[in-house]
Structures are given as structure tokens and as C-alpha cells.
Design brief:
The chain is of the alpha+beta class. Helices cover 39% and strands 11% of the residues. The chain has a 4-stranded mixed sheet with strand order 1-7-3-8. A two-stranded antiparallel sheet has the order 2-9. Strands 4-5 form a two-stranded antiparallel sheet. It starts with a strand and ends in a 6-residue tail after the last helix.
Length: 268
């Protein structure tokens, strides 16, 4: 790989370049973390199965609706994310065989496995997220003949993956039985929105002061300064209650939509 950072993108998801810039610059500040554009959450069930080796409560997969309702997230989907190239190498070499075999068998859950794998290597930290405007509001889904999610066992499969992968990677108890430390590497969900009216910082370690001022660091490269200047402008427009249809990222999204419509990648 010629670059340290990798933009992982599924073939049925598109976002405007402005949204990709937002995720990339956030990643350059935190290259040890995944920076994602999708947020999902694991849910903890009170059900316990005495026949399981794992004696922890069962974990299940929470869809976007569950994450928004609870305002919590603990994973991202690498269908669109920035990730350090070393994690790809580490995953292929050192991820548990049981995890890899499960992904191959069910043809699903590779996104859960990578998100959890990086969390396990960073002490149980959740992934980071791009600005809200760059996440769900900027996404365009292309038409596909058959999606994995159309399988009627999709939720059941992903529930099982979340539960088993978290156990295999020590994210449920942080290997406390082995380390004798109760809080070593446990994955806990974090808040998504701190201000539901804001289009900017969401998720863990979000810069909640941006864009309160317009001071730019002297060490920023020119393209990042231009990006931030654009965001300052967008923030001013929002304060003047500009309509959503005229908001700049919506205009960029509509422009991209028009181009892929012309290419026949989506139906009108």
C-alpha cells in the first residue's frame, strides 16, 4: 500500500468528495482509530445460556434505528471508512481463526469483525465518526441486484456474530479472568449526538467547540484550511436558517446523484 490511510468503500455506496475530506482530516488527527461514516450499537440482553462457554450476557446487533433511539454507538461499518493500512495486515495475520472462518461461512459480518478487531487493539475504544453532515445525510446508495441484508436470517446472523466476536476478542470482559483487571479493554457504547441540532462533531472525542470560531492552525496544509473555511461558511448559513435543499452539502450530494443517474447506476 503506497499510503498509510485506506478509504474502505463498498461498491454500492457513494458520498461527495466534501464528505470524504471531512472523514480523512479527522483520521489524520487519529490514525490509530477507524473513522467511520456509519454508526451502529451492540445491545446487551439479560438472557444467559448455561450451555455456552461465554458466561457473559448475550450481545446482539443494533441497527441504525436502535443507535439513534438510544443515542449510543459502539461500532462502525467499514463499507465507508478511513483505516490505517497496518490494521488490514494485522487482521489477515492475527485475527482469531474462528472469527475469519465465521465470516467466510456466513458471507456476512466482515464489517463487525473489523470494527471490533480495531477496538480490541485500542483498549476497547469505539471507532470515531466523521461530522454528522458527512455521515447518513450525505450517503447515496446504488441499486444492487441482491443485498446481503435481504437474507431473512440477516438479523439472526449478525446477532450471533456480535456476541461471538466480542467474546473472542475480549471486548465483553476485557479478559478480566486472565488479566485480573476488571476494566481492561471492555467495549462500552458512547454517545452519538451531544447537540442534535449540530451538523458537525458527533461520537467519541468529537470537537464540540467547532466551528465556534474561525481560527485556523498555522500548521494545517492548504487543502485542509480550505475545507475548514468552507465549513465555517456553512455554519454561518445554517445560523441564518437556510433551507435544507440549499445547504451546500445537500447541493454536492444532488450534483453527485445527478451524475450517477446519468450513468445508469441507480433508477430514477
Amino acid at each position: 500500500m503506497p499510503t498509510l490511510g485506506i478509504l474502505s468503500v463498498d461498491d454500492d455506496v457513494l458520498r461527495p468528495c466534501e464528505a470524504m475530506d471531512a472523514g480523512f482530516y479527522r483520521w489524520t488527527d487519529h490514525p490509530d482509530r477507524i473513522v467511520g461514516f456509519d454508526f451502529r450499537v451492540h445491545l446487551i440482553s439479560n438472557n444467559r445460556n448455561s450451555q455456552r462457554l461465554d458466561t457473559n450476557p448475550m450481545w446482539t446487533y443494533g441497527y441504525l434505528s436502535s443507535a439513534k433511539k438510544s443515542n449510543r454507538y459502539s461500532m462502525t461499518l467499514p463499507r465507508f471508512c478511513f483505516i490505517h493500512r497496518d490494521y488490514l495486515d494485522l487482521y489477515t495475520k492475527f485475527a482469531p481463526n474462528r472469527l475469519i472462518q465465521t465470516v467466510q461461512k456466513v458471507m456476512n459480518c466482515e464489517d463487525i469483525s473489523m470494527s471490533f478487531f480495531v477496538s480490541a487493539l485500542t483498549g476497547g475504544k469505539v471507532p470515531l465518526l466523521a461530522d454528522y453532515w458527512a455521515t447518513t445525510p450525505s450517503m447515496i446508495k446504488l441499486d444492487t441486484n441482491q443485498a446481503i441484508s435481504e437474507n431473512n436470517r440477516h438479523k439472526e446472523i449478525r446477532d450471533d456474530c456480535v456476541d461471538k466476536f466480542a467474546f473472542l476478542l475480549g471486548l465483553k470482559d476485557g479478559f478480566s479472568a486472565l488479566k485480573n483487571e476488571e476494566d481492561w479493554g471492555v467495549l462500552e457504547s458512547k454517545p452519538i449526538f451531544y447537540d442534535k441540532q449540530s451538523l458537525f462533531g458527533i461520537g467519541e472525542d468529537a470537537d464540540l467547540t467547532f466551528p465556534a470560531g474561525e481560527e485556523l492552525r498555522d500548521d494545517l496544509m492548504g487543502s485542509r484550511k480550505n475545507h475548514m473555511t468552507q465549513l465555517f461558511t456553512w455554519n454561518k448559513m445554517k445560523k441564518h436558517k437556510i433551507t435544507k435543499e440549499r445547504f451546500p452539502y445537500e447541493m454536492a450530494k444532488r450534483s453527485l446523484y445527478g451524475r450517477i443517474l446519468e450513468l445508469g447506476l441507480i433508477d430514477p
